[in-house]
Amino acid sequence: MDFSIYKKEQNVIISLKEHFDAKVSRKLKYIFDQLANKITDDVLVNLRPVLFMDSTGIGTIIHMHKILKAKQKRIFIIGAEGQPLGLLTMLKVNRVIPCLQTMDDYQIHYASTPPQLKPSGSITKSQKPKQAQESTSQDQQQATSTDEEETQNKESKKVTDQREDNIEDLI
């Protein structure tokens, strides 16, 4: 088998071997889909032994991330180096899925932390003081420009989501 799946403590560990390509992705995605309902905690994908990963490997990781996020669970990439890390970085997957050097890094920084849907430090408009809500004409102009940027970001996100969906359709 090109990968192994096992449970350590409450986490599911997926450890891949040398290549994470279309052949491995197809098998892993099939097995993961069958196990997804039984996952009760974080999933750690060990890429340390992986020397080569292609776009189907990325698509499989994103597929797992989407399923786990819907269940309010998390996925972490452990030990990615060389070409796989370069690909994860180039495609900015590391901005969505934490990429850690070792299992110890996971234990230190994330193991006892429950998943959060919203960053705890964010402030919504209704929480801002009344003075901050009153704006001058200059503030209103900045708000208009911010609204336009948000619209562009939403459109960009739609394109990104379509690309992710297209990757998954190819697998």
Automatic annotation (TrEMBL):
Residue ranges, compositional bias (Low complexity): 132-145
Q: Give the Polar residues compositional bias ranges.
A: 113-130
Q: Where is this region: Disordered?
A: 111-171
Q: Using the record's annotation, list all stretches that form the STAS domain.
A: 1-97
One GO MF term attached to the UniProt entry:
anti-sigma factor antagonist activity
Task: Specify the domain of life of the species encoding this protein.
Answer: Bacteria
Q: Spell out the Pfam families in the cross-references.
A: STAS
Which residue stretches does the UniProt record annotate as biased composition, category Basic and acidic residues? 151-165
Name of the featured protein: STAS domain-containing protein
What is the source species? Spartinivicinus marinus
